Amino acid sequence: MGVSHGAAGTPQQGQAKSMSEPLVVIEKLYKSFEHMGRTLEVLRGIDLTIQEGEVLSIVGPSGAGKSTLLHCIGTLDLPTAGSLRLAGEELTKMSSARLAVVRNRMIGFIFQFHHLLPEFTALENVMMPGLIQRRSKKEMERRAAALLTEVGMAHRATHRPGELSGGEQQRVAVARALSLEPKLLLADEPTGNLDSATSESIHELFFDINRRHGTTIIVVTHNPGFAESMPRVVRMKDGQVERDEQGAHAAERRARAAASAPVSG
């Protein structure tokens, strides 16, 4: 079911659907923290627009502000100043209760550590977000089973996390993130703890999800191969966007990557 990285141009087909209506618009976004009497400026005036259906990576050295930016987009953290709009709604002016509604309705999260509930099966873990929202158990069980099939985990539906490998746990986490049909999927170092072969399969899964569902996907990663395979790469440094490579630049990167890849056969 995987989509090869050479087909990473596929998400661009989805981008054309709504170029006039960006899903995420970030303007002059700042985020600072107080630490031991000092102000630490983590984000320093971020401007970024993300179209519905895009797949992009955010890269940069440790401390560049990548995860903080992702957390602000996901409403897990509030910016200090600036504007952040999701599907036309200004998030920075919302109450905590309203933010929770938007987060549950529109955003799915995948982290480096899977955060699966150890006492529940894979199927039950995927069902959990819907059950918390008081959706019917029958509906969520049907959807969870379909998603586990989609991520290649139907045969492990009755297994608990402790009985699954790291890659299998991450696939269950991906299914769980998709359980409420989010428009936006945010992934923070999703393959940081996985071996290279397993990481590759998870990478392909992201492209497959975008192709199947048109889900907008933003990935923070230190994996250069994964980052460079994407149609768009946002490079951060010192809390700012250093470069935003897309279009022709992305095509050039993919061509170089393809040319340097070993020939199978």
Q: How would you describe this structure to a colleague?
A:
- The protein is an alpha/beta fold and 265 residues long.
- α4 (122-132) runs parallel beside α6 and α5 (137-150) packs across α6.
- The protein has helices at residues 10-15, 66-73, 96-106, 122-132, 137-150, 166-177, 196-213, 224-228, 248-260; strands spanning 22-35, 38-51, 55-59, 81-86, 89-90, 107-111, 184-188, 216-220, 232-237, 240-245.
- The protein has nine helices and ten strands.
- It is 37% helix and 26% strand.
- It has a six-stranded mixed beta sheet with strand order 6-7-8-3-9-10, with helices on both faces. Strands 2-1-4-5 form a four-stranded antiparallel beta sheet, with helices on one face.
- The longest helix has 18 residues, at 196-213.
- It has a domain at 5-10 and 52-76 and 105-257: P-loop containing nucleotide triphosphate hydrolases (Rossmann fold), CATH 3.40.50.300.
